[in-house]
Amino acid sequence: MINGKVLVVDDNKSVLSALEILLQFEYKTIETVSNPNQISSFKNLEDFDIVLLDMNFSAGVNTGNEGLFWLREIKKRAPDTSVIMMTAYGAVDLAVRALKEGATDFILKPWNNEKLLATAKSAYLLRKSQKEIHQLKQQESNLKQHINQDKNYIIGNSKALTAVLNLTRKVAKTDVNVLITGENGTGKELIARELHRTSKRRDEVFIGVDMGSISENLFESELFGHLKGSFTDAKEDRAGKFEAANNGTLFLDEIGNLSLQTQAKLLSVIQNRVVVRVGSNKPIPVDLRLICATNCNLEQMVSDGLFREDLLYRINTIHVEVPSLRERDDDILVLADFYLKKFAAKYDKKSLRINQAAQEKLMKHSWPGNVRELQHTIERTVILTEGNVLKPTDFLLSSKVGHTFETGPATLDEMEQRMISNALNKHDGNYSAAANELGISRQTLYNKLKKKGING
User: What is the pTM of this model?
Assistant: First the structure.
């Protein structure tokens, strides 16, 4: 027996009895009504899986208009319920009209029992499939809302930030590829999410990928997907990030970290908007908005032969430069107040405030780590403070008084030199600590310093 619910509507009580007897061994619940006006009395009409509906109720009338009227009424209240029309007057044009109005099928009286049961079962399976599709769509919608929900906020009203947001919202109306650049900690992902949130794809998914965290041998699998058995650990078919972001937005962070080989593979997909899973020859079209981000100087990398010029042109239709916190110092105290309230609530330390001297200290700091550094500084201070008023001594800030943002070294030699200098500065000239961070011995560090003429 199918755990289904059937409603039979017919003015002939003999028909009602016959159908009830026939269907009671197939479906858990059978309800019958002889007057179609009683349909309105069912508060949960959508609970019925099948409605068997007569097409004529008035004596001497066989146009089928009554049945079509009640068909429309049922579909208004229960659009997913399967409706099977019944009539003793067979006419092809009437059957076509009923199907156009939303009927699932058509049965002639007198009916063949086996055919009627088969028709009813098909209608039930259709109804079940529609319910499952509806549930899947609802789950997908809820999942997209969960994924896309704003977990962070763009805070500030400085001119520099306002200009970026104005450009972002203007560009969001289009589908052009966008390249977001800026120092670490400036909020490039937040700008990418704002582009998605204000675009026509806002109800679809936003997929973010940290390109720097993907190993080169897994690049194609992660981005384009793979088939089961295509390599050792491929235990099942898997869609890549491009497929997952279909109809939505794909955000590729740290794109400057890609090798030339992986850049070529990425370029092909961006150009053709088609992916091919690892182990497959079947092209899969994708429709998405592409946003990339980096803290590297890609133009310099192109000059140095480290980044493909054609790929840069593809991802750089619109360029958005996110300002550093030094360029939006009007926002420092606004951000500090926002994070103070956030972490005071999180750690149950109400009524905290920053005094004037501490505010001046925050304003004078160069914030080389930008908004991310400010956020971590406020959180650490809230955790460690024992009073309600935060003073300058409560804020442990980097000893650096200035910061120059260098978007990318010209050579590998310069990159190594910069890494050594940064490590020494970070550890206040402690050679052992700097060598440990760089993953080399103290003697090797000495040799490199001597060779490069770096004053530690």
Answer: 0.62
